[in-house]
Amino acid sequence: MAGASTVYNLASDMGGMGFIEKNKALCMLSVLINTHLLKAARESGVQRYFYSSSACVYNASKQSVPGVPGLAEDDAYPAMPEDGYGWEKLFSERMCRHFHEDFGLETRVARYHNVYGPTAPTTADGEGAGRDLPEGHRCKAVGRSPHRHLGDGLQTRSFTYIADCLEGTRRLMDSEVRTPINIGSSEMVTINRLVDLVEAIAGVHLVREYDTSAPKGVAGRNSDNSQILASLGWEPSTSLLTGLEATYRWIHDEMMTPAHAPGPGRR
User: Fold this and answer.
1) Band of pLDDT at residue 145, cut at 50, 70 and 90
2) Residue 31, in any domain of the structure
3) Active-site residue 85, yes or no?
4) Model's pTM, two decimal places?
5) Handedness of CA 167, 49, 79, 21 (dihedral sign)
6) Which of 3, 34, 118, 128 could form a disulfide with 250 if both were Cys (CB 3.0 to 4.6 A apart)?
């Protein structure tokens, strides 16, 4: 069971798609975080170690069309991950595996798919698509328009609500699953559909501009949840609409709270 001698490695140097395309060396240097933490965990007698990996580890050739089938864990090999960031994540997964094989350190690895929600990072898998989530409210609050898309808006993704991400991580840490596992929603939408939902929730209409010359990542990515269902008897279940509505309410409260007064989620 996860306890006091448990380490969670959730750190990396990353950002949206524009960042990781231009900072591949910096993304790769994040391997040092995992290296040092694994060594320290072993030396300190840590009982269980968690590594947050990414859907960016998956073979790019299996993500070449928007209507891609869900990516199963075996689809990471033969290896052809996102350059820079994806390679670092895949390499760090292997380090966790070998620290268990060679030193007996119990390691758990989750491949997150675009985590969003109140107090969550903008995105967890380097895609940057999560940056669209608050856009409706920003436009409503400050009147900013048009809305710029990276790509044609037809690329597909799935988005995982933060509560589901935390529940899945807890279940994984309390399990005996030592191989990497997807923690992601299987509800795939286009980026255009994502913005449609935000517009409906915010009550706004955005003028959309498409920058097809900008980095947009793979054409399609979705989570196959067969393994997590078989291993943990559970999968993320919060619908995108439900999660976006909760996220919108949180962002609204944050933006309407004076900067000098603590508001929900302020620290």
Assistant:
1) low
2) yes
3) yes
4) 0.86
5) positive
6) 118
